[in-house]
Amino acid sequence: MKRLISVACIAIYSAFPQVTLGAQTLPTVAAYGVDSSQVGDYVGQTVNDLIFSFILELRSYRITDLRTQKPPADLTVPEGMDYVFHGALSNQPNGVRLELTLRGGAQDVTRKISRVYENTNRVLLESRMLVRDLFDQSVPLPDPIGSASPAAAPEAAAPLPSLDSLSGTWAGEAGVEKILILRGGKGVMILSSGVSLSLSLDYRGGVLVVTQKGALNPRQFLDLPEPVARQAAATLTPWEWDFSVDSSGKRLSGRKKITSVTHDGTAILKTAQEEVPVEWER
After folding, report:
1. If pLDDT is split at 50, 70 and 90, which confidence band does 170 have?
2. How far apart, in whole angstroms, are the C-alpha atoms of residue 33 and residue 52?
3. Distance CA 175, CA 187 (A)
4. I need a surface site. Which of 4, 178, 202, 271 has the fewest CB within 10 A?
5. How far is Cα 217 from Cα 229, in angstroms, rounded to an integer?
6. Residue 4 has pLDDT above 70, yes or no
7. Residue 24: what pLDDT?
8. Long-range contacts made by residues 175-181, C-beta under 8 angstroms, separation at least 24?
9. Strands 28-35 and 62-65
């Protein structure tokens, strides 16, 4: 419980110094809350505050806080506003699903984005990118996992390739010589440094999740001085990738989740969670 509070507080307080938006010509957003009735009041309030702090970081919108009010049932844009924002947090068999919706603009477009996280701590650590992608109009969004538009409903979704069908040699990521995907949801990544990392593969909510297994190796962190790399290997979380699989089963596109490090040459001073776009090709 204390960990949940500390993670949220760090993110929220880092965001609030940027609240002043100033320019009156910015598009306005009526920001309603994230419906969290399925996950409990404490977790819901924490996630609500955090998501709102991420929205406040956006410099290209002017935000009106309506979290204490219920959003319109049809999510229409309130009079005097350009956009309306709303979200929902729900329990899933494999974690917690966060879905965010932004509607409005000159063409009254509805944008939706969602992701299933392993747990609520993951939501707190990694949902900033979800908010940024939702509000960045230049980012094309796929249909949220688990939802479909009425027009698309009659069409059956294309089945995901089996994990065994992905077996083979893959490449494409910087600093990686090759990736061997094996049968049974296992794999091996060989870094340019010669280090081999064990991997596990699994589908979660329609997303291919690849996770580094076993202990971290200091030689995965060649960009760090040796004493810092040893500390990083002992304290940081394993690498993880979230991929979408193209219809041919020969390209994986997604994000690599890593921890960036600030150090003084001998010790880690600060860490931050980051997501880096990556592609693997067979």
Report:
1. very high
2. 8
3. 17
4. 202
5. 8
6. no
7. 55
8. 175/222, 179/280
9. parallel
